[in-house]
Amino acid sequence: MSYKKYLWGFGGVVAVVFATYWYNLGSISHEHGPWSSFGALLSGVFTLAGAGATIATLLFLNAQSQEQKKDALKRDKRQRRRERKQAEEYQKITQAQLDTLTFERYMNHRKLFFERLTELEISFDNKFIIVNGDALYNKIFPNNGPTNLEFKVIPLCGDEGHNHIGELSKLLDELEKILDTPLVENINALDLTILILRINGKLNIKWSAPACDGDIIFDGRNTGVNIYSIQEFTHRIKSVVNSFLFYTCNPLYDGFNKGNSRVGREALMDFFINNRRLLGEVDVCKEINGLTVMEGLYFKTDMLRGGDGGFLLESTFRFLEKAFQSRESVLRLRDAEIVKGFVRAAVRECELVMNNNVDIIDNPSFREIKSLIDTLDCNY
């Protein structure tokens, strides 16, 4: 019952009391006794009325307190809804700003990566280009995208996982290990060739300079890898891979510090003498007249020794040894006059050896050497 109803009810009770009193006592009396009784009645009624008023006040205050609590709860709920909505809107705005910032940083990161590729191409006189930079970027930074950007990539190549940086580092280690092999006969030239082509492919390198003698041709395209100058290739891939390692916050690769690998060069030379076309896809550019013959002569004169272990055709061997030291030295063999002079000297040295060693003509290796020299003599 509300306090208003209570007041109305109390008022009704008072009215009933006075009506009952008037009905039983009649009109107003002039005697002291009835007034005394009436005063006692009024005292009781007003006491009751005061109690009722107190109760009504308490009920009113309680009702008012409940109403205030309800209003406060409603205000709190509305406030919390407004605050939650504002927080959600703020979070959306903040996330949108973060996404925009991440996208801008991602685009700048890619831009710097492509600029670095261009710098690498320029540093090697634009002899090659790195094709499909988008695919290469995605391989090196597989987790990067418009909404996510990572600067550091840990090289992985093993049970813990694989990524492009890890595989490149592993392939470089394998190549250095092969080139550090002390003996040519311990090198599998086919494995070395495949490894070189794999590394070249993973770097997306496309050679743009014209092919020259000794360049490996793969699937009809010049790779720029020269069998006479392996150090050119190792220097090039070390620079490119180190650029990627630096860009992914990793230590630089510190290998290939021993110069041109003679065993690697001779392994490839010997292999491509008899396997100039490998499985129909790999070839070696040899435009110099008689170049393959001179390669064969180089290996044969190296093996032909006297009883004291010395070279029997040392001048011929030393000329060829110097000629096959690098790409540049091989290119000197394009000068026909230089080769003619070499052939004449080789013929004279061969005749001198036959005159001083009567039994040498029966040596199969010497007969093969003489046949190679005669072939060159006929070509020049």
Keywords:
single chain; 380 residues; mainly alpha; 3-stranded antiparallel sheet; two-stranded antiparallel sheet; 12 helices; 6% strand; rod-shaped
Q: Could you please describe the fold and organization of this structure?
A:
This protein has a three-stranded antiparallel β-sheet. The mean pLDDT is 86. It is rod-shaped. Helix 5 (189-202) crosses helix 7 (262-274). The chain starts with a helix and ends with a helix. The protein is mostly helical and 380 residues long. It has helices at residues 3-25, 32-123, 133-140, 164-179, 189-202, 230-247, 262-274, 291-303, 314-323, 327-331, 336-356, 364-379; strands spanning 128-130, 157-158, 161-162, 205-207, 215-218, 221-226, 282-284. It is built from twelve helices and seven strands. 66% of the residues lie in helices and 6% in strands.
Helix and strand layout, with pairings?
Elements: H1 3-25, H2 32-123, E1 128-130, H3 133-140, E2 157-158, E3 161-162, H4 164-179, H5 189-202, E4 205-207, E5 215-218, E6 221-226, H6 230-247, H7 262-274, E7 282-284, H8 291-303, H9 314-323, H10 327-331, H11 336-356, H12 364-379
Antiparallel strand pairs: 1-4, 2-3, 5-6, 5-7
Quantity of strands, as a count:
7
**What is the straight-line distance between the termini?**
130 Å
Oligomer: single chain
Order of helices and strands: HHEHEEHHEEEHHEHHHHH
Structural class: mainly alpha
Strands of the biggest beta sheet: in what spatial order?
6-5-7
Strand count, sense and closure of the main sheet?
3 strands, antiparallel
Helix content: 55-70%
Which regions are unreliable across 5 or more consecutive residues at pLDDT < 50?
A: none
Our Rg estimate from Cα atoms comes to 51 Å
